[in-house]
Amino acid sequence: MSSNFLTEPAVAPDLHIPHSPHTVDVRVLDAGTLLHLKPGLFYEPALDGFEAQHVPTYCFLISHGDRHVVFDLGVRQDWENSAPKLVSLVREAAMITRGSDIATLLNEDAERHEKGGGSGPELGIRPRDVEAIVWSHNHFDHTGDPSTFPPTTPLVLGPGVRAASWPGYPTNPESMMLDSDIAGGRPIQEISFQAGEKGHVRIGRFDAFDYFGDGSFYLLDAPGHAVGHMCGLARTTADPPSFVLMGADSCHHIGVLRPTAYLPLPRDGPSLQGLETRAQTTQTTPCPCPGELLASLTKTGQPDRSFFDVAKGPYFLDHEQSMDTVGKLQELDASDEVFIVIAHDHTLRDRMPLFPEKVNDWRERGLSSSTRWLFLKEFEAVIAKRAAES
């Protein structure tokens, strides 16, 4: 075998992304809020030694010339002012560390720009300059506080989200949403992914909507986790083409996506350093290569199957649809043209440029190849525990 993979990679499928000379600028927004995610609740199986994680929630600013769209708003800074039923659930789960919010990030950057005192690429974009807010879905860690944007700023939603969300609290005391999210007559645009309708295209096996109408930014129909769940796909360079895939909550750990038949586990490499040593400290017999140790942890014990599935239970509305969406994403993940950022992938946090910097040059930076297997280091304790027990 000529590659460093444990098994020969399968040929990645053709995604058939339409050609376009048009691009958008993509900036990753991280407002600093951390969520406490427990293995077994959001992805399974739980592995002995694999601990709960504190993860960010990534949002995105997509700029098409002087047109700006925000993809997700994260957690509202004053989350205690959310609907009472939601507040009760968050407090019970003790799952949040407070951060800022997206409107504040934009305003602070704009103030630096206006004062001319910043040292970075300040943009001067305020919430009033954003033409639309796209919600990937209607969960609290993505919906933020739309009232921090003008009431004329539309909400762009996936199919069925409006009916599933409103009326909110206080009109409906049991709602997780707020009436104030759409107060003031805020316009709502619900995306249709029906074939034959204006803007409909196919991206890989996804039904997609061409948001700007020129192939620069697509919304993808990615159901399963929640009603109307969507991903985003932004063209960051035209020739050669490259894309950033905004995975939202298609999964909550990158080990749900990897490895695959297209991206099997590596035999060794920088991301695996320390795994073999960790295991050898607890046994006297020679250890296999790090990749083989890790393969024993995958769902099937094989190097071309992912570590986790999305969990069955309340956090994924439709498990079968969720797994189908994961399968479609895995095909995009296999492409060298696509850099996937799921909303809660903490391994990327200190590696990729954050707002106000652009992430368009991700390929030149080698971000995809250098971060693809970083999550494997999280399994050191699992390997050591199993080695000690063998």
From TrEMBL:
Residues 56-297 form the Metallo-beta-lactamase domain. Keywords: Hydrolase, Metal-binding, Zinc. InterPro entries: MBL_superfamily_lactonases (IPR051013), Metallo-B-lactamas (IPR001279), RibonucZ/Hydroxyglut_hydro (IPR036866). One of its GO terms (molecular function) is metal ion binding. PANTHER family: METALLO-BETA-LACTAMASE DOMAIN-CONTAINING PROTEIN (PTHR42978:SF5), QUORUM-QUENCHING LACTONASE YTNP-RELATED-RELATED (PTHR42978). Belongs to the metallo-beta-lactamase superfamily. This is Beta-lactamase-like protein. It comes from Dichotomopilus funicola. The lineage of its organism: Eukaryota, Fungi, Dikarya, Ascomycota, Pezizomycotina.
